[in-house]
Amino acid sequence: MDGKRPRSFYVLAAVFTLFLIFLYGPTITIAILSFQGPQGGLTFPMRGVSLHWFYDLFEQQAVGDIWGSFSRSLILGLMVMVTTVVVSVMGGLAFRKRFAGSGLLFYVIITSLVIPSILVSLGVGLIFNQLGFKVHWATSGFGSQLTWTLPFGLLIMFAVFNRFDKSYEEAARDQGASPWQTIRHVVLPIIAPSLIGVALFGFTLSYDEFARTLLTAGSYNTLPLEIYGMTTNVTTPVIFALGTLTTIFSFFVIGVFLLTVWSLGRRRSKQGSDAGKGMV
């Protein structure tokens, strides 16, 4: 070996670089254009550099309801996140043992992943109309988004419990713990990082979901619907400023979840070291 990298290494590195540019190029372009001056437009070249459009974003807009749609997306995302975590854990616990119809139920659960999202949105909207219920982002929109987030959460929980060491639960029961105490004090702390991952999946998938919310949000838009509507009637970089802020918010949410996972891991390692010292 002469220490030289093969030519294929540079080819793969170039392909990977192009992939990153393709993946993040549009987001970076929007971020750059959002810092244009007051006379800026929607395309290059930039006309000055300022924070004008970020300030303008917080003013009353001539069209749309940006902050109302943001609050709806935030509330809906939290609702979907909590429901996804709770149902996924319950489903993961239930599927630890085979029961009649478990195979069929599993395929029914994951089928919603392959059905076109717009058809799911249409179907949920029609069902609510036929039943006489109001099509609203907090009811029909909530239900349609769960058809997207729950399968991911359940698949994660299936994988987690498939590798879960049941000896921990047996030890807890030997110490006199009830089934609920075993779940609360043994199972949930062990799978906590996975629960955070399911929560992140649930929130982010809900926060930016468009197709499954299109026909189920009713007369009040969520943020993705609002942004789509703004593309037809907003001709200033304020829409780029909105995109930049929502991207920053998304990274902030991911950072909070990662920090939580890190703190849980650190606390667990500290407890393990303290237990080891106690045994010594």
UniProtKB/TrEMBL annotation:
Organism for this UniProt entry: Meridianimarinicoccus aquatilis
Cellular component terms per the entry's GO annotation: plasma membrane
Primary residence: membrane
Subcellular location: Cell membrane
InterPro entries: Bact_Polyamine_Transport, MetI-like, MetI-like_sf
Residue span, ABC transmembrane type-1 domain: 70-257
Keywords, sorted A to Z: Cell membrane, Membrane, Transmembrane, Transmembrane helix, Transport
UniProt cross-references to Pfam families, sorted A to Z: BPD_transp_1 (PF00528)
UniProt name for this protein: ABC transporter permease
Parts of the chain that traverse the membrane: 9-35, 74-95, 104-128, 148-165, 186-207, 238-262
